[in-house]
Design a protein that fits this description.
Strand 5 (137-142) and strand 6 form a beta hairpin. The protein is an alpha+beta fold and 193 residues long. Helices cover 39% and strands 21% of the residues.
Length: 193
């Protein structure tokens, strides 16, 4: 045996190597993590949170950064819930907070409108039949890193846990969450501006 048992117990192996960090609350993840992941992604930025509004307050110069990324060839996608959808109305009743789900979605749409049309920047609304699956799980992808938030019961996103994953191969947790996001994206409805 090359490694003593004490070392083996502390070294990640298999698919658990993909779990970089976990946070009991999304809001506990430092803004520097979000900013670094956005900044270092070169090929694919996929924001598949139901509202995505917090990026403009969490990541400094977010609008300028995603515009620059898209213009340099990075694919930048926003998957949102429909602001007037049934699932959005139901989620508003569940959360019962002043900053409603539809307001948070409209905030994102307003911020995206300010950026203007940019080649490589796409926005879609989750399909009505997929909205319930979208509202309960946010997947934010930055090339081979992802931040994933499973939404708990009546809690808003910032009060739900967050997992930082890094792709280490096929079939791991990263791939499973990435595939979930892609499935929702493929059936999503393009935003009409």
């Amino acid at each position: 045996m090359l490694w003593p048992k004490a070392v083996q117990d502390r070294v990640k192996t298999g698919t658990d190597r993909e779990l970089i960090h976990s946070y009991p609350y999304r809001s506990a993840c430092p803004s520097t993590v979000w900013a670094e992941l956005v900044e270092t992604a070169d090929d694919d930025l996929f924001f598949a949170g139901y509202t995505n509004y917090f990026f403009w307050t969490q990541v400094p110069h977010f609008a300028d950064t995603i515009r620059r990324k898209a213009e340099s060839g990075c694919r930048v996608r926003f998957l949102l819930g429909a602001p007037d959808g049934e699932v959005t109305r139901q989620r508003e009743a569940v959360e019962n907070v002043a900053l409603s789900v539809s307001t948070r979605i409209r905030t994102t749409l307003e911020q995206l409108d300010r950026i203007g049309p940019v080649e490589g920047l796409e926005t879609r609304f989750s399909a009505p039949l997929d909205a319930i699956n979208h509202v309960s799980l946010s997947v934010f992808r930055f090339d081979h890193d992802a931040l994933v938030t499973p939404h708990l019961a009546r809690l808003v996103g910032h009060d739900s846990p967050l997992f930082h994953l890094r792709r280490q191969g096929d079939g791991g947790m990263f791939a499973r969450f990435a595939e979930h996001g892609e499935e929702l994206w493929e059936r999503a409805e393009p935003e009409i501006r």
